[in-house]
Design a protein that fits this description.
homodimer, alpha/beta, six-stranded parallel beta sheet, 11 helices
């Protein structure tokens, strides 16, 4: 049994999707959910997504085998500190945070033997937020990056791996720092760029939005995501995001220099096209030999 | 009748989609297609997409009421010059080019009374190219921007408008310069950004592509488009693209400055989020009062 008793902290898009996925795929598991608001608790109980729900953290986590923190990064530390004294021996804690170095650094020390923290980043979600958009198949065919450290036991790593695999994810491992560097480039930088592009058009020629086509729509979809959550993510990964902005400005200057030279411009675009076509054809998960390559 | 005899110059994604759309929606129209390669001619004749096809330009256009140039921008002028002496009086010529000032400037003088050129930019397409991806519904619910000039007659403008409307487009009018400025921001700049982002990641941390999720996939989809075609488009709209790059770098510097300030960063992201959510809910066509607003 991966877990008999699961506690989910936070019933947002990810937390509610985990509840639904576990309900569907591991029906014997008892699911308890912590929510900040009493109204959310009543909703959870009403629609059967959880067996128990409460605004009292201790009540939700006290008999859990596995706790998944599904709150914005900025809210994690206080909640983790609030639950640390109330876990049963052997309880494993994980999270869904999009930044791992800061999260692992602040959370891991709170959960020491006989409890343990293993960082997770399920790369699933959408620009929508809230339980209303939750989906039991949200994690299917998605990549989940585990960021264990030397302090983790093989048993805990295996349990968290099996948990995400049960939900349909393919799991890979990276160090927290390697995770943040990579995800800074492929997730946080694209988010900031999409927002920046919209703001640049708004400043430069807002009437241009009237002739927007699917290109702009697709390339800025992610910018519709929740601003407070993304502000927290970008700040928690500030150094890598800064590095990404600098890399981007440097390449934009290169593009600007070659704009008048058809052959060089075509080669610049062809390089990107080939990269993009390879992305398209590959699954979002590294294959065996490249997993844990960092 | 919008046209009894239609000539399509170039059987790529757009040309072949126009042929299929006209076949489906205006079955009485005789469709002739010019292709550069004899093999493409045989294919067109074989699959019934055209009533006639040839590598001889004069043969294809000589009895047409309407000619649609569906070739890359760089190839337009020579083809237009090659057909200009072979049109029947009253023939209207239009195109599908993504840049309008340069195209209208070089093509309009070739088609004088009793023929006439009206520039069109159907904002439809995909990252795929070639007749194999053609679709009779490609233009449905898309925006088509007409860029008539003072030299155009109301009759020609009306005929080209009705043609695109027949294919399912909603038609608006802008000046060629206003078109290029607006489309530079909402189409050409996003394309260059997507390519630049992929190249920046490739330079900075190519292994990061291993953990790419749907965010990067969506935001760079357009970069998979044909490099030679896009190099031609970006160069033909060079000044506006340059302006877009500068606007983008300026906003990236702003984002960089506020990255450490949670409130300002959140407000930056929230502004973009609100713009994006409005884009999502609106059709791609301006409403009556804002049409022809430039």
């Amino acid at each position: 049994m991966i877990c008999d008793r699961l506690a989910i902290i936070g019933p947002g898009l990810l937390g509610a999707s985990i509840a639904k996925a576990v309900r569907a795929r591991l029906p014997g598991t008892r699911i308890s959910v912590w929510a900040r608001r009493e109204a959310a608790v009543q909703e959870l109980l009403g629609d059967g997504a959880a067996d128990a729900a409460s605004t009292e953290l201790a009540e939700v986590v006290s008999d859990a085998d596995l706790v998944v923190l599904c709150v914005p990064i900025g809210a994690m530390r206080d909640l983790a500190a609030g639950m640390a004294g109330n876990l049963k021996p052997g309880c494993i804690v994980t999270d869904v945070g999009s930044v791992k170095a800061a999260v692992c650094e602040s959370l891991a020390p709170l959960f020491t033997h006989p409890t343990e923290f293993v960082g997770s980043h399920p790369m699933a979600g959408s620009e929508e937020s809230g339980a209303a958009y939750s989906d039991p198949d949200l994690f299917r065919d998605s990549l989940c990056i585990l960021t264990p450290t030397g302090a983790n036991t093989p048993k805990a790593i295996q349990q968290v791996t099996q948990f995400w695999e049960l939900l349909g994810s393919r799991v890979t491992q990276m160090s927290p720092d390697a995770h943040d560097a990579a995800v800074g480039f492929v997730s946080h930088l694209p988010h900031l760029l999409a927002a920046t592009l919209l703001n640049a058009i708004q400043s430069g020629d807002p009437a241009a939005f009237d002739v927007c086509g699917n290109g702009l729509r697709d390339s800025t979809r992610i910018a519709a995501g929740p601003a407070p959550m993304w502000a927290g993510i970008l700040r928690a990964n500030e150094n890598n995001v800064r590095r990404g902005i600098e890399a981007m400005i440097e390449k934009l200057r290169e593009a600007e220099r070659i704009l008048h030279n058809e052959a060089e411009l075509e080669s610049f675009l062809a390089t990107a096209r080939d990269i993009r076509r390879r992305l398209k054809n590959k699954t979002s998960c590294p294959t065996g030999e490249s997993a844990a390559h960092h």
